[in-house]
Specification:
By secondary structure, this protein is an alpha+beta fold. Helices cover about 55% and strands about 10% of the residues. It has a domain of about 80 residues: Glutaredoxin (3-Layer(aba) Sandwich). Helix 3 crosses helix 7 and helix 5 packs antiparallel against helix 6.
Amino acid sequence: MFRSLTSRLPGLLAILAVVTGAPAFAQPPEAVAGQDYRQLASPQPTASPGKIEVLEFFSYGCPHCNEFYPLLNAWLAKQPKDVVLRREAVSLGHQQWVNLARAYYALKASGDLPKLDAALFHALHEEHLALTDEASLADWVGKQGGDAAKFATAYTSFGVNNQTVQSDAMIGTYTVEGIPALIIDGRYLVLGDTHEQMLVNADKLIAMARYAARKRTVKGAAKAQ
């Protein structure tokens, strides 16, 4: 009997929390709609079920994205394991940025992205290199110790072309007007006047998403009893 009660204790506590209205966990800091975030009209599926997805839209050609890159990485390193980052490179109508979006997906496909991600930002914004097409980008990849042949093959592949087209189409779906842009859990577009404020607001929205997920778990456990 003791074992039976012990095994049912989490569910019984969940029922008690639901019935009495007592919180099973702390209410997160409140994010203000229209100030800290904008809720998407239709929630979008995430690529990491069971995790809280932070989706970034960016371009290597965007100076604001270049400034945001180290801040985002430092912020991400402090996040719990239930938070994952997904990135989509977009063009926002700039032809050169289309080529840079292709470069991002080609680097992912060739396996050189971890090594050359930051380096490509630096080459464009600090060294002011004219990396505008397949030839110049592949040459640069080779000089940086990457696999230029794999990069060139991936750059012109159907898969990379498809990813580039799809990422630009996502801009409309997520109602993104400028970059860098962050979407939390497929539901919230982060707002903020500065990059630092965006990350503060992202923390609030991650806490909101985590709280909502735990509430769903508690209700599910209560129904299962």
